[in-house]
Design brief:
The protein is of the alpha/beta class. The protein has 2 domains: 3-211, P-loop containing nucleotide triphosphate hydrolases (Rossmann fold); 222-417, P-loop containing nucleotide triphosphate hydrolases (Rossmann fold, 3-Layer(aba) Sandwich), CATH 3.40.50.300. The chain has helices at residues 10-18, 26-36, 51-64, 87-100, 118-126, 135-143, 160-165, 169-176, 194-203, 234-244, 257-269, 283-294, 305-308, 328-335, 356-366, 382-393, 408-417, and strands at residues 41-44, 80-83, 108-111, 130-133, 154-157, 184-189, 208-211, 222-228, 250-254, 274-277, 300-304, 318-321, 345-351. The strands form 2 sheets. The chain has a 7-stranded parallel beta sheet with strand order 3-4-2-5-6-1-7, with helices on both faces. It has a 6-stranded parallel beta sheet with strand order 8-13-12-9-11-10, with helices on both faces. Helix 6 crosses helix 8. 46% of the residues are buried. The protein binds adenosine monophosphate. Residues 21, 24-25, 28, 47-53, 312, 314, 341 line the site of adenosine monophosphate.
Length: 418
């Protein structure tokens, strides 16, 4: 399948070529013709699959024939509304719209919370056809009557499962009520849970379903490894690994915002340059942290799941799970930041005995055990590990009788893999 086969016109094909895309990704092959045909589409595709282009390209194609260079704001009503849960995603989609839409006289902008609203109002008043927004900030604009959604033709709900997780559905409902009932609605979600299907029922009309192979079968070029480690010694192990393997550009995930802050300052104190990105940081702080990381001014970026969602950092050599996520699916999201597009990558998980349950969840989803590596001096104390292992393994504690020859960490892994 080529982009030519998908029904995009010459200038969009030129754009795609300029971006260096030689062939469409699976979600693009499946979704682009459907979107062009005006169908509602419910697509299971996560970040990294090329899903942004899968909706932005055909949307531009559909709008371009009626695009105009007129000056009056009235000639530029909002025709496309793209809702996405986080500011970072909003910025990335906004950037994609600008990139792919170069040369087409369609105006676009991005609105999201955490920044001043006045500059957004100015742009909205001048007229934009494509509006990318986070739900809360869009409702602020609705409340101030700075946006009119009555002429929206295409409504995109990006990261539907995240919208649910973040409690945005009531906001989405309020927004959808302001849109024409006659419209095209595209819903993208990493997973198809029952809740996502319910969302589709509520907001879509007879959608075509697009399901591309989830990245559960993780790319061959991605190496996964877990280090059993004492909870209290994780940060030291991380410093050890970064130094031992001369790691650069390491994206580290923590479960909590406070954990992210603490780890970032600890790493900095230990001489590993680090910045952090999480929900308690202002927009400008987040942007600065991300730029510092992308520009390789810092080695490590510590992030929480929500804040990292959809960060488009390509070719990352290392992703570290400082803690395993609560939701196994998030493991896939996290490690999807490395080994993209053929580049090789390593996903490292630091797993302490209290995380056996999360590890089981992840390995069940992967349908395989993650290979285990040992750094002897950081291994958890077998006494403390015995408890959770025994809970799953029922008396497998006897493995420890052989002492160090059968390291505790191996037990942690085998118990969890069953
Ligand atoms: P997304 O899933 O939308 O976050 O896209 C992930 C990355 O894939 C982005 O950096 C895109 O620039 C890139 N990308 C999108 N489509 C293609 C394609 N057909 N070939 C190669 N890279 C692509």
């Amino acid at each position: 399948m080529t982009f030519e086969d998908l029904g995009l016109s010459a200038d969009l094909l030129a754009t795609v070529a300029r971006e260096g895309y030689t062939e469409p990704t699976p979600v693009q092959s499946a979704a682009i013709p459907l979107v062009l045909a005006g169908r509602d589409v419910l697509a299971a595709a996560q970040t990294g699959t090329g899903k942004t282009a899968a909706f932005v390209l055909p949307i531009l194609e559909r709008l371009r024939n009626t695009a105009n260079a007129g000056f009056s704001p009235a000639r530029h009503p909002v025709r496309v509304l793209i809702l996405t849960p986080t500011r970072e995603l909003a910025m990335q989609i906004g950037a994609a719209v600008k990139t792919y839409g170069r040369g087409i006289p369609l105006r676009s902008t991005v609105v999201y919370g955490g920044t001043r609203i006045d500059p957004e109002i100015k742009i909205l008043w001048s007229g934009v056809e494509i509006l990318v927004a986070t739900p809360g900030r869009l409702l602020d604009h609705v409340g101030q009557r700075t946006v009119n959604l009555s002429q929206v033709e295409i409504f995109v709900l990006d990261e539907g499962d995240r919208m649910l997780d973040m409690g945005f559905v009531p906001d989405v409902r309020k927004i959808a009520a302001l849109l024409p009932a006659q419209r095209q609605t595209l819903l993208f979600s990493a997973t198809f849970s029952d809740d996502v299907r319910r969302m589709a029922k509520e907001f879509q009309h007879d959608p075509e379903i697009v399901e591309v192979a989830a990245r559960n079968s993780i790319a061959d070029n991605l190496t996964q490894v877990l280090y059993p480690v004492d909870q209290a010694r994780k940060a030291d192990l991380l410093v050890h690994l970064i130094r031992r393997d001369s790691m650069e550009q390491v994206l580290v995930f923590t479960r909590s915002k406070i954990g992210a802050s603490r780890l970032a300052s600890y790493l900095d104190r230990r001489g590993v340059s680090t910045s952090a990105i999480h929900g308690d940081r202002s927009q400008s702080e987040r942007t600065r942290a991300l730029e510092a990381f992308k520009g390789r001014f810092v080695k490590v970026l510590v992030a929480t799941d929500v804040a990292s969602r959809g960060l488009d950092i390509e070719d990352l050599p290392y992703v570290v799970n400082f803690e395993l996520p609560h939701e196994p699916q998030d493991y896939i999201h996290r490690i999807g930041r490395t080994g993209r597009a053929g580049a090789s990558g390593t996903a490292i998980s630091l797993v302490s005995p209290d995380e056996v349950e999360q590890l089981r969840g992840v390995q069940r989803l992967l349908r395989k055990a993650i290979p285990c590596a040992i750094v002897e001096e950081f291994l958890p104390d077998p006494e403390r590990e015995a408890a959770p292992v025994a809970r799953f393994g029922g008396g497998r504690g006897s493995r420890y009788s052989s002492g160090r020859a059968q390291p505790a960490g191996v037990g942690l892994q085998t118990a969890a893999a069953r």
